[in-house]
Amino acid sequence: DQQVKQNSPSLSVQEGRISILNCDYTNSMFDYFLWYKKYPAEGPTFLISISSIKDKNEDGRFTVFLNKSAKHLSLHIVPSQPGDSAVYFCAALSGSARQLTFGSGTQLTVLP
Amino acid sequence: EPEVTQTPSHQVTQMGQEVILRCVPISNHLYFYWYRQILGQKVEFLVSFYNNEISEKSEIFDDQFSVERPDGSNFTLKIRSTKLEDSAMYFCASRGGEKLFFGSGTQLSVL
Question: From chain B, which residues contact A within 8 Å (Cβ)?
Answer without folding.
Answer: 4, 6, 31, 33, 35, 41-45, 48, 50, 55-56, 91, 93, 95, 98-105, 107
